[in-house]
Amino acid sequence: MKYVDEYRDGDVARGLIEEIRRTVTRPWVIMEVCGGQTHSIVKHGIDRLIPAQIELVHGPGCPVCVTSLEMIDRAHAIASRPDVIFCSFGDMLRVPGSHGDLLTLKSRGADIRVVYAPLDCLKIARDNPERKVVFFGIGFETTAPANALAVKRAQVEGVANFSMLVSHVLVPPAITAILQSAENRVQAYLGPGHVCAVMGYAEYEPIAELYKVPIVITGFEPVDLLHGILMTVRQLESGRHEVENQYARILGRAGNEGARRLIFDVFEVADRKWRGVGSIPKSGYRLRYEYRAHDAERLFEVADICTAESSVCISGQVLKGIRKPLDCPAFGTECTPQHPLGATMVSGEGACAAYFTYGRHLELAGRPLTQVG
């Protein structure tokens, strides 16, 4: 398949690994931002194929993972109401809140429905005028245009019983928060290709300049990632700190200008709490005042719900690149994809979930990965 098979070519991958080996002369710590990149790196063993001088650490790039515990509990409080039809993408149903997950709530009689697009909720709202239909609007900038469109159409078409519980988070402030941390180890970033397809990458340029870190916008296939690593290592070794675009076949510097206009028409930037990390200033979206009639957090008065994270879980340190999943005492025992404790195990794109899925938990018991499956 064009633009897929050639980015999984083993000979090309081996050539890139050899070029990385020839280029690197000292240790470097590189963080991939997107959870899809983490999944691909672990699945293909990229972190173990590249030279040992290069350490890949896994950033807060999974939107399901970083949706705050408070927001999950707010979703539960709304979804449990008998007058509500609560709609969500399927990957949110098993994310644990303080008292179970949405799937458990559904099994107890709550009207919780899986949808494949936010516009599906408008049809549900039109078909059920006596009910309040709420969509759980999560994600990075990637999903923001579709969510903004649903809210805008509800406003224009007068669908008054539709609202959205907004929990959008933004990548650049998260990158900045990690770089500002006293514990920071990250020296360069593999930037998020899908986010930049919407937003472009101009907003990453001041970050690269201010913090003197290379940022290479990278795709998701093995060759993409290895090429991005090579570009990053070349910058590190030469002392450069620029934003480069490895994913040029998909995106440009400006991103999708129409999508960006739609986002900023409906949303405004706000502070946002990240699960496992804490509050990051100006790191999320909320609905603008003009769309307050569709703001579920306001309509259902759930903004004051506050909760505490598990004291056992180290997901916050994993998300900031300080620790790895195998460092967690609960990994693979108390914490599994079936019974997740923290942010990085709740979604298939989370670092802990990726490690578990591809058998790295077996290493803790001394079993080789060849026994997986």
The share of residues in extended strands comes to 15-25%
Report strand order across the widest sheet.
4-3-5-6-11-10
- Helical region count? 16
- The CATH superfamily title of the largest domain: HypD, alpha/beta domain 2
Order of helices and strands: HEHHEHHEHEHEHEHEHHEHEHEEHHH
Return the domain count. 3
- Please state the average pLDDT score: 91
Q: Which range best describes the helical content: under 10%, 10-25%, 25-40%, 40-55%, 55-70% or over 70%?
A: 25-40%
Task: Give the beta-strand count.
Answer: 11
In terms of structural class, how would the helical and strand content be classed? alpha/beta
Please give the CATH architecture of the largest domain.
3-Layer(aba) Sandwich
Largest sheet: 6 strands, mixed
The value of Rg in angstroms is: 21 Å
Envelope shape: globular
CATH topology value of the largest domain:
Rossmann fold
End-to-end C-alpha gap:
28 Å
- CATH class of the largest domain, please? Alpha Beta
Uncertain runs are 367-373
